[in-house]
Amino acid sequence: MENHANVLLIGPSSDQATSGLEAEQRVLAAHQCHAVTATTAMLTRNDDDSLDTIETPPAFLNKRIGISLKDAAVDVVKIDDSVGLKESTVEYLAAILKNNPKILSLLDCNEKSSAPLFAHLTVLCTTKADALDLLGLNSTTEGVNVDQSEVAKSLKSLGSKYVVIKPLFQATEEPFTVTVYGDDGLLTLKGDLSTSRLPAGLDSAFVAAISANIAKNLAMPKAVEAALRYIEACARDQPVQLNYFHSVYKLPFTPGNFVDYLLARDDVQEAWKRHTEHEFLTRLANGTLPLEAFKYYLIQDYLFLVQFARANSLAAYKEKDLDKIVRSAEIVLHINREMALHLSYCKDFGLTKEDILKTEESQACTAYTRYVLDTGASEDWLALQIALSPCLIGYGVIARRLYDDPKTVREGNPYWKWIANYVADDYTEAVTLGIELLDKHAQKQSPSRIEELVKIFIHATNMETGFWNMGYAKIGV
């Protein structure tokens, strides 16, 4: 199971979608991090656009922070001091960070009152103007070098491991600059948000993305650069609201439910129903299927199994993990044993191995098996398994439906044994394992790849249906 990093967000809650804890939680979710929150204040707008603020009592806030750190296995503490961070909470956080140096921390700094935190921070993030204010300087002070990199170096002397000087994120035609300074040197990054209008929320999204990236163990310069590229994509073609989830894959099924999703799709249902509810099967279940049709099917099924073994040998070649290579080899050996049983079953219908081998492979058999092999040769392991799955899963579904159907004739039905074979424990276990493998590997695919795999499944299902049509066509039914 994948472990997600935990980030404790300390800051104000806002009624605006683009700021405050609410917006930061979206950023963390987009980075697959879990958010824990401690609200310093609640902000809401009045009709005249003025703000009403209710600050959290410091004792209560401190208690909330302490419990969160104790219970949530926090990797990063991200602090916004813009509203409601009182002196007692600053001192409380400073003590926590001092006594827990393994906890990474980031302060989005707006206030001088947060200075007691500086010596214990992993990252101090602020604007150039606020940095000068923290240093007791301003851009008009005589003799002051206001170069952004020099400001970052001066600010680092206050104690944090890294300083990030962020831009104001205002609409401009010029690229903006982000400066990162730490013991490993100075890094200057250029960002491009050149537009006549920028969506609100870039500032908080940028800082939250940095916290997510360091929580995921990215080195500091890479964490900042990745955050910068993230917000560029957030703002691209979004003049009103940020697209926080631009790089998040949204699979249309939950983990472990790919096959259920696949079989329930409207575009699959039509092909699947034709395959699993074919007239060949209806007459097989009630015992009225012409014997010659079934015998021809048995012959072609044996010839199919030969190609089925080749396909699983190809699956072994497609694998790199030895255990999976061995599993594919074991399937080939299982097919070999199944073919021996198949020959024994064929004898009940007066068919010998010689009869089978001298029969030409039908066009339906050739079309399906070569499609499977071609898919395996030109695509990946999963595509090959998808191409094979209408056979594996379909026979299990068909046999279970016919076995449970009270209309199915058992006594005196020459085909009852065929139905019973495919509800036996060994086959149902094989189906279950096959479905589990498909579910596991499908979860790692992109949405576009899922659509490609669905098309392979539909085509292979139609090929399977051709097997039933084949038996009828041979005798002119």
Automatic annotation (TrEMBL):
Record Gene3D superfamilies: 3.40.1190.20, Heme oxygenase-like
Residue intervals of the Thiaminase-2/PQQC domain: 266-472
Assigned GO CC terms: cytosol
Signal peptide interval: none
Pfam family, one: TENA_THI-4
Gene Ontology biological process: thiamine biosynthetic process
MF annotations from Gene Ontology: hydroxymethylpyrimidine kinase activity; phosphomethylpyrimidine kinase activity; thiaminase activity
InterPro entries: Haem_Oase-like_multi-hlx (IPR016084), PM/HMP-P_kinase-1 (IPR013749), Ribokinase-like (IPR029056), Thiaminase-2/PQQC (IPR004305), Thiaminase_II (IPR027574)
Annotated Pyridoxamine kinase/Phosphomethylpyrimidine kinase domain residues: 19-242
NCBIfam families linked to this entry: salvage_TenA
Protein known as: Thiaminase-2/PQQC domain-containing protein
The organism of origin for this protein: Coleophoma cylindrospora
